[in-house]
Amino acid sequence: MATTRCTDPVIGAILASWRYDISGITPEMRRDYEQHFAECARCSARQSFHRSLDGALAVLTSLSALFFLFALAVLKHIKPLEHVAFKILGLDISDMYHMLISAGVAGLCFSVMAFALVLMATPAPSYLSGIAVERAKLIEERLPARIKSMRFR
Ligand SMILES: [Zn+2]
Fold first, then answer.
1. Residues with CB under 5 A from ligand 1 (ion)
2. Rounded to a whole number, what is the largest CA-CA distance in the chain?
3. Is the dihedral of CA 12, 17, 19, 23 positive or negative?
4. pLDDT band per the 50, 70, 90 thresholds, residue 1
5. What distance in angstroms lies between residue 36's CA and the mean position of ligand 1's atoms?
6. In angstroms, rounded to a whole number, what is the distance separating the alpha carbons of residues 47 and 54?
7. Model confidence at 28, in pLDDT bands (50, 70, 90)?
8. What is the per-residue pLDDT for 131?
9. Which of 26, 36, 38, 119 is deepest in the core (most CB within 10 A)?
10. What pLDDT, in 10s, does the model give residues 66-119?
Protein backbone atom coordinates (compact mmCIF):
# COMPACT_ATOMS: atom_id res chain seq x y z
CA MET A 1 0.00 0.00 0.00
CA ALA A 2 2.88 2.36 0.81
CA THR A 3 4.77 1.63 -2.40
CA THR A 4 1.99 2.66 -4.80
CA ARG A 5 1.65 6.41 -5.19
CA CYS A 6 -1.47 8.51 -5.50
CA THR A 7 -2.20 9.46 -9.11
CA ASP A 8 -3.38 12.93 -8.03
CA PRO A 9 -1.82 14.06 -4.71
CA VAL A 10 -4.13 17.12 -4.45
CA ILE A 11 -7.31 15.05 -4.61
CA GLY A 12 -5.59 12.39 -2.48
CA ALA A 13 -4.91 14.95 0.27
CA ILE A 14 -8.53 16.18 0.20
CA LEU A 15 -9.82 12.62 0.41
CA ALA A 16 -7.42 11.83 3.26
CA SER A 17 -8.77 14.79 5.26
CA TRP A 18 -12.27 13.33 4.85
CA ARG A 19 -11.05 9.87 5.83
CA TYR A 20 -11.93 8.82 2.26
CA ASP A 21 -15.63 9.30 2.98
CA ILE A 22 -17.45 11.01 0.10
CA SER A 23 -20.96 10.02 1.16
CA GLY A 24 -21.61 13.49 2.63
CA ILE A 25 -21.01 15.58 -0.50
CA THR A 26 -23.31 16.39 -3.43
CA PRO A 27 -23.57 13.84 -6.27
CA GLU A 28 -22.08 16.29 -8.84
CA MET A 29 -19.01 16.80 -6.69
CA ARG A 30 -18.83 13.14 -5.86
CA ARG A 31 -18.31 12.11 -9.49
CA ASP A 32 -14.72 13.44 -9.67
CA TYR A 33 -13.78 11.69 -6.46
CA GLU A 34 -15.43 8.44 -7.52
CA GLN A 35 -13.41 8.62 -10.74
CA HIS A 36 -10.26 9.12 -8.67
CA PHE A 37 -11.10 6.07 -6.55
CA ALA A 38 -11.51 4.08 -9.77
CA GLU A 39 -8.15 5.28 -11.12
CA CYS A 40 -6.07 5.38 -7.94
CA ALA A 41 -5.29 2.04 -6.29
CA ARG A 42 -3.77 3.74 -3.24
CA CYS A 43 -6.86 5.83 -2.40
CA SER A 44 -9.36 3.04 -3.06
CA ALA A 45 -7.34 0.72 -0.81
CA ARG A 46 -7.31 3.38 1.92
CA GLN A 47 -11.03 3.96 1.47
CA SER A 48 -11.86 0.30 1.99
CA PHE A 49 -9.49 0.19 4.98
CA HIS A 50 -11.22 3.16 6.64
CA ARG A 51 -14.69 1.80 5.92
CA SER A 52 -13.83 -1.58 7.42
CA LEU A 53 -12.38 0.26 10.44
CA ASP A 54 -15.69 2.14 10.85
CA GLY A 55 -17.60 -1.11 10.53
CA ALA A 56 -15.37 -2.79 13.10
CA LEU A 57 -15.88 0.10 15.53
CA ALA A 58 -19.65 -0.08 15.14
CA VAL A 59 -19.65 -3.84 15.67
CA LEU A 60 -17.32 -3.61 18.70
CA THR A 61 -19.33 -0.87 20.45
CA SER A 62 -22.62 -2.68 19.85
CA LEU A 63 -21.08 -5.93 21.15
CA SER A 64 -19.84 -4.05 24.21
CA ALA A 65 -23.36 -2.76 24.87
CA LEU A 66 -24.70 -6.31 24.48
CA PHE A 67 -22.14 -7.66 26.96
CA PHE A 68 -23.11 -5.06 29.55
CA LEU A 69 -26.77 -5.95 29.03
CA PHE A 70 -25.82 -9.58 29.52
CA ALA A 71 -23.90 -8.73 32.71
CA LEU A 72 -26.95 -6.90 34.07
CA ALA A 73 -29.16 -9.87 33.22
CA VAL A 74 -26.72 -12.21 34.99
CA LEU A 75 -26.69 -9.95 38.06
CA LYS A 76 -30.49 -10.03 38.16
CA HIS A 77 -30.44 -13.84 38.15
CA ILE A 78 -27.65 -14.02 40.71
CA LYS A 79 -29.68 -12.13 43.31
CA PRO A 80 -31.19 -15.30 44.84
CA LEU A 81 -27.70 -16.83 45.02
CA GLU A 82 -25.97 -13.78 46.43
CA HIS A 83 -26.86 -14.82 49.96
CA VAL A 84 -24.61 -17.87 49.70
CA ALA A 85 -21.89 -16.37 47.51
CA PHE A 86 -21.40 -13.18 49.44
CA LYS A 87 -21.59 -14.84 52.82
CA ILE A 88 -18.70 -17.14 51.87
CA LEU A 89 -16.72 -14.23 50.42
CA GLY A 90 -17.54 -12.13 53.46
CA LEU A 91 -18.75 -9.16 51.43
CA ASP A 92 -21.48 -6.70 52.25
CA ILE A 93 -24.33 -8.01 50.09
CA SER A 94 -26.28 -4.93 49.16
CA ASP A 95 -23.23 -2.67 48.72
CA MET A 96 -21.54 -5.14 46.41
CA TYR A 97 -24.71 -5.74 44.45
CA HIS A 98 -25.41 -2.07 43.98
CA MET A 99 -21.82 -1.41 42.97
CA LEU A 100 -21.98 -4.13 40.31
CA ILE A 101 -25.36 -2.91 39.06
CA SER A 102 -24.20 0.69 38.75
CA ALA A 103 -20.99 -0.43 37.05
CA GLY A 104 -23.10 -2.42 34.58
CA VAL A 105 -25.47 0.47 33.93
CA ALA A 106 -22.57 2.91 33.48
CA GLY A 107 -20.86 0.51 31.08
CA LEU A 108 -24.08 0.04 29.13
CA CYS A 109 -24.64 3.80 28.86
CA PHE A 110 -21.04 4.35 27.79
CA SER A 111 -21.20 1.63 25.10
CA VAL A 112 -24.50 2.90 23.73
CA MET A 113 -23.07 6.44 23.58
CA ALA A 114 -19.90 5.18 21.86
CA PHE A 115 -22.03 3.21 19.39
CA ALA A 116 -24.17 6.28 18.64
CA LEU A 117 -21.04 8.41 18.15
CA VAL A 118 -19.57 5.86 15.75
CA LEU A 119 -22.82 5.79 13.76
CA MET A 120 -23.01 9.59 13.63
CA ALA A 121 -19.35 10.38 12.98
CA THR A 122 -18.58 7.67 10.43
CA PRO A 123 -20.31 6.31 7.34
CA ALA A 124 -20.52 2.95 9.13
CA PRO A 125 -24.34 2.63 8.76
CA SER A 126 -24.25 2.84 4.96
CA TYR A 127 -21.15 0.64 4.88
CA LEU A 128 -22.76 -2.04 7.06
CA SER A 129 -26.09 -1.91 5.24
CA GLY A 130 -24.17 -2.20 1.96
CA ILE A 131 -22.54 -5.37 3.26
CA ALA A 132 -25.92 -6.66 4.42
CA VAL A 133 -27.46 -6.04 0.99
CA GLU A 134 -24.55 -7.84 -0.72
CA ARG A 135 -24.86 -10.81 1.64
CA ALA A 136 -28.62 -10.98 1.06
CA LYS A 137 -28.04 -11.04 -2.71
CA LEU A 138 -25.44 -13.80 -2.36
CA ILE A 139 -27.77 -15.89 -0.21
CA GLU A 140 -30.63 -15.34 -2.64
CA GLU A 141 -28.47 -16.50 -5.55
CA ARG A 142 -27.61 -19.70 -3.69
CA LEU A 143 -31.21 -20.50 -2.80
CA PRO A 144 -32.55 -23.66 -4.44
CA ALA A 145 -34.82 -23.03 -7.42
CA ARG A 146 -37.85 -24.43 -5.56
CA ILE A 147 -37.59 -21.89 -2.74
CA LYS A 148 -36.94 -19.08 -5.22
CA SER A 149 -40.14 -19.89 -7.14
CA MET A 150 -42.04 -19.97 -3.82
CA ARG A 151 -40.76 -16.51 -2.91
CA PHE A 152 -41.65 -14.80 -6.16
CA ARG A 153 -45.08 -16.33 -6.60
ZN1 LIG B 1 -5.27 8.84 -4.99
1. 6, 12, 40, 43
2. 69
3. negative
4. very low
5. 6
6. 11
7. confident
8. 81
9. 36
10. 999 998 888 887 766 666 666 666 666 677 778 888 999 999 999 999 998 888
Three-class SS of residue 81?
Answer: helix
pLDDT score at 23: 83
Cα radius of gyration rounded to whole Å, the chain = 24
Beta-carbon count within 10 A of 33 CB: 18
* Cα–ligand 1 centroid distance for 46 (angstroms): 9
Taking the C-alpha atoms of residue 27 and residue 41, their distance in angstroms, rounded to an integer, is 22
Measured in Å, residue 52 CA sits from the centre of ligand 1 at: 18
- What is the rounded distance in angstroms from the CA atom of residue 123 to the CA atom of residue 127? 6
Q: How far is CA 48 from CA 35, 43, 111, 124, 153, in A?
A: 15, 9, 25, 12, 38
